[in-house]
Structure formats: structure tokens, C-alpha cells
Write a structure and sequence with these properties.
It is a single chain. This protein is α/β, with parallel strands linked by helices. Helices cover about 35% and strands about 15% of the residues. Strand 1 and strand 2 form a beta hairpin. The longest helix is centred in the N-terminal third of the chain and has 22 residues. It binds 2-keto-3-deoxygluconate and magnesium ion. The site of magnesium ion has 4 residues, from loops.
């Protein structure tokens, strides 16, 4: 058996923070897992180093399911983003090791390719409708078949998720949370105009997506979904907070615009009612935040029974290790929908050399054994952790609100 002899947490900040777990076996085989939890990175690093790593030493790296159960049931304290990101990192690293030892890419271990490649969606963010469409057309010219559009809201100084024109998208932008002002009324006026203009400028042969970022009440989300129906969106994402899964019934009563939810989910229990009641169309849980490849497959299997497809979160605060895992997962599950793609910076790609590739709007994890991602530890060590928080939003009267 490949015995685990060491496990180390590597924190690096090539432009943004990433937490990576590296597990090593007695024959020298290593595996990587992403454990990055944006804005709360060091809590997962500590959970791993202080509480998980000591339990891994000496275990059989092949027993992925048993290790998963050991860390989940054995801890007594279940679920939650910190715990599940830590379990995910271990799980992902063990799949990486299993693939390397078998001499096969991870997707082959998961049943083989269920499609040629994974469709990915790009991002078009702009301060105005015109800017956004200009960026979207540029992404379409690169071959993307699906594009998420977010534009600034007239009358609001800034909007989360919308970078200043030309700047990279990076929501964790300050060493204490920055604050922005939010107005649902103003937002609801601009979004239908954005998609009307986008269809006029770009036609109908491209999938258009939009992220609402949990900001609306269910009835407001129903109203927006209905207003967007003429523009045939691929999905609206996170229309309302999903702690109350029932709330989605109200949205469903009012619109046929497809709904995607789940980037903040960390277990199948967060998604169970949404899936079983067919209240969503795409489940956005990810490898890193939802317990690894093992648990995400369980979620996907449940979703498949109800014709809910996957649409994994893939913002740049998920490392290339998570991106690779998402592509192996996406290539192999029967109910793949789409994968989010936000290219990492050159600095990040240099720290994490990888085998996955983009071609004509599709991505493939590559044929390297395991996940096909490495970490240049010397380079990683040159980038010190830098505290960075996600922002908060307030209504115009100062009330803290969802974002
Ligand atoms: O990519 C998305 O859909 C997001 O909503 C990005 C998130 O805000 C970001 O990953 C939070 O860390
Ligand atoms: Mg989102």
C-alpha cells in the first residue's frame, strides 16, 4: 500500500492567496489538493496542519472513501466551509496520488470521458452596458460559447463583481473589507437593458449568463427572471440566499429562466431539497468547497436523477489545482452542464504548472497521470501571504445587505 508519510500546507500569494495541501507517500509519490477559502484562508490552513495532518500519517493513500468518512464522521463536527475545504484538499490530493500510481489521468479513474471536452464560460464585466458588450464580443472572438455579463449600475459608485474597465476581476481587494452601496431598484432597471442590448449586438448563437449574487428577495428574483425571458439566458445565478431552500419555489412559480446555485454550498445537504424538488437547473458546488471529488460526485449523482446539471464555480480564488479537479470531474460526469473559467494570472500559472488547456470555448484536463498540476515550491515561497478580504455591501440607508 502507498503509505502517507507527510502532508504539508503551502500558503502562497502570487497576486492572490492560495492554500495547497501536498501529501507524500513512502514511495515518493505526491498529490495536491486546493484548500483555498477566499478571505478565510488561514483558518483552513490551521484546520489542516493542526487537526488533519496528524491523522493522515501512516494511512493507506488508496483508501480515499475511508479517509473521507474518517475525516467527516470522525471529527463529530460536520460540514461548514472550513471543515469541508480541508476534507476536499485531502480527497483531491489522494485522487491525484491514485492517478499517478495508476499512470492514468483522474478522469479515467472516474469512469472515463463522457464527452470530448468541457464547455466553459467566460466573464465580461464593464462599468457600462457598452463596455460590457465590448468585452463580451472580445471573449466571443476568443472562441467562448458562453459568457457571463455583469455591468455597473447607474447611480451606484461601484458594483461587486464588476472590475474597473480594463482591470482584472479581484473581489478580495483590501486588507479590511471594503464597503459598497447597493440599490436593488437601480439594479433591476439596468439588467434587462444589458441583455436586450447584448442580444442585439451579439445575436443568439452564444449562451449568456448572469450572477445575481444572492442580492434579491425571491419575488424580486422572480420578477427579474421573467423580465429576462425574452433574452433566453443560460442561467441566472444565486438569485436569493439559499439557506432557505423553500424560497426557490416562489422564484420557480414566476419564471422559466434557468437557475444556478451552489458556489457557497459545502455539502449535499445544502442542495438536497433544491435538487429533489427541481427548484434549480444547475448545481454550482465545487471540488474545493464541497468536500472534494468524492463528495461532489455524490452531489452530481443525486442531481442527475432530477435532470439538474453541473456548473462548477471556477473563479480565480480557486487555484489551478481546483480547476484541474473540476475538469476531470466535469469530463466524466453524465450531467455536466458548464464550467466557470476565469484565467489565472501568469504569476499563478507559473507557481502551478498544469496540463489542462483551452481550445475553442472548451477545456480539457489533459492526459498527464493524476490531476496534471504541479506546484513550484521555490517560486511559491517567494510570495508571502497577504491578508485580503471580500467586500461588504450596504443599502443606501446603511443597512448591511447580501451580496
Ligand atoms: O465566480 C462567481 O460566480 C462568483 O460569484 C465569485 C465569488 O464571488 C468569489 O469566488 C468569492 O470568493
Ligand atoms: Mg457567483
Amino acid at each position: 500500500m502507498p503509505k502517507i508519510v507527510s502532508a504539508r500546507v503551502i500558503v502562497t500569494c502570487p497576486g492572490r492567496n492560495f492554500v495547497t495541501l501536498k501529501i507524500e507517500c513512502d514511495d515518493g509519490t505526491t498529490g495536491l489538493g486546493d484548500a483555498t477559502l477566499n478571505g478565510r484562508e488561514l483558518s483552513v490552513a490551521s484546520y489542516l496542519t493542526d487537526h488533519v495532518v496528524p491523522c493522515l500519517i501512516g494511512r493507506d493513500a488508496h483508501r480515499i472513501e475511508d479517509v473521507w468518512q474518517y475525516l467527516y464522521k470522525g471529527a463529530y463536527w460536520r460540514r461548514g466551509p472550513v471543515t469541508m475545504a480541508a476534507i476536499a484538499a485531502v480527497d483531491t490530493a489522494l485522487w491525484d496520488i491514485k492517478g499517478k500510481l495508476a499512470g492514468l489521468p483522474v478522469y479515467q479513474l472516474l469512469g472515463g470521458a463522457a464527452r470530448d471536452a468541457c464547455m466553459v464560460y467566460a466573464h465580461a464585466n464593464g462599468t457600462t452596458i457598452e463596455d460590457t458588450i465590448e468585452v463580451a464580443k472580445a471573449e466571443q472572438a476568443k472562441g467562448y460559447k458562453a459568457i457571463r455579463l455583469q455591468c455597473g449600475v447607474p447611480g451606484l459608485a461601484s458594483t461587486y463583481g464588476v472590475a474597473k474597465h480594463g482591470a482584472r476581476y479581484e473581489p478580495a481587494d483590501a486588507d479590511l473589507p471594503s464597503e459598497s452601496v447597493w440599490s436593488t431598484e437601480k439594479y433591476l432597471r439596468v439588467v434587462p437593458e444589458l441583455f436586450k442590448a447584448a442580444r442585439e449586438a451579439m445575436g443568439w448563437d452564444v449562451h449568456l449568463l448572469h450572477d445575481i449574487h444572492h442580492r434579491l428577495t425571491p419575488i424580486e428574483a422572480g420578477r427579474l427572471g421573467k423580465a429576462l425571458e425574452p433574452y433566453n439566458l443560460f442561467w441566472i445565478e444565486d438569485p436569493t440566499p439559499a439557506e432557505n431552500q423553500e424560497a426557490f419555489k416562489l422564484i420557480r412559480h414566476h419564471t422559466t429562466t434557468p437557475i444556478a446555485v451552489g458556489e457557497v454550498f459545502n455539502s449535499i445537504w445544502d442542495a438536497k431539497d433544491l435538487i429533489q424538488n427541481q427548484l434549480i437547473d444547475y448545481i454550482r458546488a465545487t471540488v474545493v468547497h464541497a468536500g472534494g471529488i468524492t463528495h461532489l460526485r455524490r452531489i452530481a449523482s443525486l442531481a442527475d436523477l432530477y435532470q439538474v446539471r453541473t456548473g462548477c464555480h471556477g473563479a480565480t480564488d480557486l487555484s489551478p489545482v481546483a480547476m484541474a479537479a473540476a475538469l476531470h470531474f466535469g469530463l466524466s460526469v453524465p450531467n455536466f452542464g458548464v464550467q466557470e473559467h476565469m484565467p489565472h494570472t501568469d504569476e499563478t500559472d507559473a507557481v502551478f504548472p498544469h496540463a489542462y488547456s483551452f481550445d475553442d470555448g472548451m477545456m480539457h484536463p489533459g492526459e498527464a497521470p493524476g490531476l496534471g498540476v504541479d506546484i513550484d515550491e521555490d517560486l511559491a515561497a517567494t510570495y508571502d501571504y497577504k491578508r485580503a478580504y471580500l467586500p461588504v455591501a450596504r443599502l443606501e440607508d446603511g443597512t448591511l445587505c447580501n451580496w
